[in-house]
Design brief:
The chain is an alpha/beta fold and 397 residues long. It folds into two domains: 146 residues, Alpha-Beta Complex (Aspartate Aminotransferase, domain 1), CATH 3.90.1150.10; 239 residues, Aspartate Aminotransferase, domain 2 (3-Layer(aba) Sandwich). Helix content is 40%, strand content 13%. The structure holds 4'-deoxy-4'-aminopyridoxal-5'-phosphate (PMP) and glutamic acid.
């Protein structure tokens, strides 16, 4: 007897959490493992944000908030979108959720019917694919590679579109590749999208601030596709607030209303203390948090240099986010420590078991040649992790 719904049967576990759990289990057994699995800043939450949360407790922000979030927070989101992105949104267009993950799911739930197609430029963030499957939608993968900086072209997008296409979903800056779309590249995609008014672009911009060398551009900045775009962002990466679970969407009003309807039947308004703290975070000058970005940038360059010494890795220089996504296909078909490596997931497991470094294989990101690791961790751990990987691979190959 199969007691599961077909919904659960057709989706998989989140591989980022699967791999981080494996690391946790190994650590619990006393094994010294370095985890580069989950993408989360290792910084503490800045003091002024913590204080705002304390104040919220003392001031008794302990009741249900409106489903799409406190008005003051939605105003702060609108303020931030104007300040940083030159985007105009009314609070009625904003829905605050339990993390950007829920914001994305709200939007997908609002527009996807069984059989609808969602275009996912690959590699994509692990949850996109599974969310689409969960809803009975059909992911349509548009392949890229390290040679094209993991980005799709307007021609590829046009080719992937048909009458069933309901959405284009991507992150820029991108988890896992660390690439981002320039204004000109996004304009060329917008030129295609505007020809297909039934398509919604879900533009996940949660790594906006970790764009080290260039200018962040949002799809919603192009007036011709503003009404077709849902902007996703949140507190997790910019303010090191992963556990506080606050994200948001900014959409055309009809879509924001639908998100509110879905969320009102699922989780209600997000945690009130974290919402109050988020107002402070969003209203504070981003320069206050630049120390984290400077540090990530330093670590990126450090790791990039260390990776040059790792045999068999083909490495793209990531310009944004905080991940490396090296191509490890050099090792496929080779037998190492009695195990034949068929894809990047096998390779990631081998690194975990033998080098005691936790990474995530690329299969669930839509690229079986690469592994992902986060460099949002201490310099000391990064240096040691690279040393272990290099030493292990040099010893077996
Ligand atoms: N989008 C991307 C691209 C992510 O990497 C993540 C993971 N942090 C999320 C969305 C979800 O973030 P949150 O913690 O706000 O749910
Ligand atoms: N988004 C982070 C990552 O990709 C956190 C884990 C998750 O939500 O998948 O590692």
């Amino acid at each position: 007897m199969n007691r599961f719904s077909s919904r659960v049967n057709r989706m998989g576990f989140s591989q980022t959490f699967v791999m981080s759990n494996k690391v946790r289990e190994m650590k619990a057994k006393g094994i010294d493992v370095i985890s580069l699995t989950l993408g989360e800043p290792d910084f503490d939450v800045p003091d002024m944000i913590k204080k705002a949360a304390f104040d919220a407790i003392i001031e008794n922000y302990s009741h249900y908030s409106p489903v799409p979030g406190f008005l003051e927070l939605r105003e702060a989101v609108a303020y931030k979108l104007k300040r940083d992105n030159n985007l105009s949104y009314q609070p009625t267009q904003i829905c605050v959720s339990n993390g950007a993950k829920q914001s994305i799911l709200n939007v997908l739930c609002s527009i996807i019917n069984e059989g609808d197609e969602v275009i996912l430029p690959a590699p994509y963030w692990v949850s996109y694919d599974e969310m689409v499957k969960m809803l009975g939608g059909v992911p349509v993968y548009v392949e890229t590679s390290i040679d094209t900086d993991f980005k799709i072209t307007a021609e590829q997008l046009e080719k992937a579109i048909n009458h069933k296409t309901k959405a284009l979903l991507y992150s820029s800056p991108c988890n896992p590749s660390g690439s981002y779309y320039t204004r000109a590249e996004l304009q060329s995609l917008a030129n295609v999208i505007v020809q297909h008014p039934n398509i919604t672009v879900i533009s996940d911009e949660i790594y906006e601030f970790t764009n080290y060398d260039g200018e962040h551009c949002s799809m919603a900045e192009f007036p011709e596709v503003y009404e077709q775009t849902a902007v996703i962002n949140g507190m997790s990466k910019a303010f090191a607030m992963t556990g506080w679970r606050i994200g948001y969407s900014a959409c055309p009003e009809w879509l924001a209303k639908a998100c509110e309807k879905i969320q009102g039947q699922m989780t209600s308004g997000a945690n009130t203390m974290a919402q109050r703290a988020s107002i402070t975070a969003l209203k504070t000058d981003p320069k206050e948090f630049a120390y984290m970005i400077d540090e990530f940038k330093k670590r990126r360059d450090l790791v990039f240099n260390l990776l040059k010494e790792v045999p068999g890795f083909k490495v793209n220089y990531p310009k944004s986010a905080f991940y490396f996504f090296p191509d490890v296909s050099y090792y496929f078909g080779k037998t190492m420590d009695g195990k034949t490596i068929e894809n990047a997931d096998d390779f990631a497991m081998l690194l975990l078991d033998k080098a005691h470094v936790g990474t995530v294989g690329g299969v669930s990101f839509g690229n079986a040649n690469c592994i992902r690791f986060s460099y949002a961790t201490s310099e000391k751990d990064l240096i040691e992790a690279m040393r272990r990987i290099k030493e292990y691979l040099s010893s077996v190959y």
